[in-house]
Fold each of these.
Amino acid sequence: MKDFTILNISLALIGGVSWFFFGKKSNQEKNESLSGELETIQLNISGMHCAGCAAAVEATLKMMDGIKEASVNFATSKGVFTFDPTKITKQQIVDKIKELGYDASFDLENFEKKS
């Protein structure tokens, strides 16, 4: 009985670890599911105080459906996003950044950095 219990626990752990590493949808599969033409936008993002803020914005946007690539640079206060316009709009990207507590702007010339 003891051996049977150990075997069941071992199988459950192996199954859980396998699902964690192999069961999730990979970025490549996510990118393949994007349809048609992709668009790229560059936004000014203000209110970031450190590289961790930039990493948080980047990671959150990468998880959104329709975003293929996201890159946020704290030093320049800019973010570059490649997305599928049939799944997400530019305004939804801006709104998500604002929801995180930062300000985002399409206006690359008249931008005041607030950090």
Amino acid sequence: MEESGSRRRLIRGFGDDVLLRIFAHLTLRSLAQCAVVCKYWNKLIESSSLLWRTMYTKNYKTLKATVGLTFMSKIAKLSLPRSNNETVTDWKSRAVQEEQCAQLLSGSISIQPWKAHRGSRVNCCRMMMDYIASGSSDRKIRIWSSKSRHYMEEYTLPTSAAIVDLDFDTNKILGIAGAELYIWRRDGKRRLLRQMGGHNQRLYSMCHVDPEVSVGCEDGAIRIFDLYGGGCSSIIRQHTEAVTGVGVNADLHLLASCSRDGTVKLCDSFSGEKVASLSSKSSLAEAHCLQVISDGLNKLVVGTASGHLHCWDMRMHHLLWKSKVSNGAITSVHHQPYGASILCVGGFDGIIRVVDCTSGHILSAFGCRKNVHYNHTSISKSPSVITKAPKEGFTKLGSEVLATSGSQSARDSLLKDSFNVTRCLPPQLAHRLSDDFASGMLNRNDPPILSVRLGMTKLVSSHPDGTLALWEFGL
């Protein structure tokens, strides 16, 4: 207790003014790390408008020297509108947004692929901080470190169904497979907490807004599950075919859904009452995915099988823009909460596009270097695995280490280490594409993208060959 008290006094001993002067010399990433040291620092950093105004000014000058004044004026249009009475949130959001735009639109790109699930299709991926979650057709969900690309946790379905969609936070993991919703607890035991279903309808999509999970079903209905009650609380029948995307706008209390029948609909997230039908079967191709953009923008973006993006105003229920961004089907659309007014779009053509949310224009597009495809790269065995003497309970056979006896934890540990060191593939460089490539007018041979998630300075994509790829941006 005395040691803890002395540390607390040391942290506060500098005084607010001195600490703010020190914080003002840090980068945005270092400042974010300082904000999680203790509650005192967090409150000081979050509440200081002068600090964030100083950080924004310093960061703006740095970015302008790096990318140029012309490009900075383009980036400024994608961030928050300026006002006379700037708040802490405004300065902080603008600094983060302009940094993100500069990295995505003009920074260098490197790709680090790795075999996340050998011989299986990685249907979905999610990213939170430095952690990546992947769900595959091999019945497994794995949690990876984005720095080492080693998996740290693994969760296996009790059935033979493939993971279709997932979500995770610091306490739990949710996944849908077959006709069931599975919830695991992320503690030391990693046990299956709940399994909910009972309706015999295949699940296609999921949206988690605690304490409820909305799932899109094969019969065109949306079923709402109570995480803590453990059952289906309501059924909303919106479509005639499978629901391929669901999303919730918490500000407007609206539940959005899209379907293979080409319809996009809104309903009240509390009562389930139908609010609006944004498209009819004849006006829209088969819808594959959707993204709800809140944060005051209140937009709904839907990707279709024809390569179009459609954007609606969720408050006024009218179409804002429609844009042809690809010749192939769009499989995934993502917008980072509190990020800039940009979308990250992935599809079967294997090209990742950055799209302006306000107009639908393609701001940037990038893919692997021509004729270089990581799904064709051979998997190299680590010498440490091949030459290491087997531990007790293991038999060495050629370059493989086989578990024969011993404790389950020992077998799992060695097999996990062996998996991690043999799955990393050589890093690659990506390049930005010309306007012809960006608009999808030319054919390429990039590996198809099934899911994509955008972070601050990186994004992750999943592919049919069992591969995950981490795209990192830098100035």
Amino acid sequence: MKIILIICIIIVLVVLFLTLLSTNKAYKYEHTIDPIEPTKNEKDPAEEEKR
């Protein structure tokens, strides 16, 4: 019975460690955002000021 309990505790600790490692790696990831290009229907604000 003690062997099963020790194995279960080891499995829980390994899963906890991997979860923390994965979460830490995810928070360090830098997201990049592509600039939005204006479509034909949208007006450029710089052109509006020139008029």
Amino acid sequence: MLAAHLAGAGLTGTWRCLTGEAGLFRLYERNIVDADVLTEGLGEVWHTMRLSMKPYPCCRCNHTLIEMALALHAEGLAPDDIAPGERAPQGLAVGQEIVEDGVDRGAGVAVLAQRERERDRAAV
């Protein structure tokens, strides 16, 4: 329903969701991605057997922790048995931003993508 209402209000789909200013490569890969690799061997090389199912509806980096928590729970560990605390991933400080500098954090990614699409259309 939300998607229908947004479309009715004029919001279109993402534009350059991988390579744009609000795209995956800039936001999460620091723009150091060879995008040509994505189409290399397209229609000739199939990677279907190299894919895996995503068992949990979250970022895959959380799956190991989920599996660990389920295993500990199965062994009888209860939430009250765990002391509170924070642990940052190796190489990061707790609370450190991992999104590229210069990104307007006040706007959602969909809004940034929409703005970029409008700029691209104006440039044509």
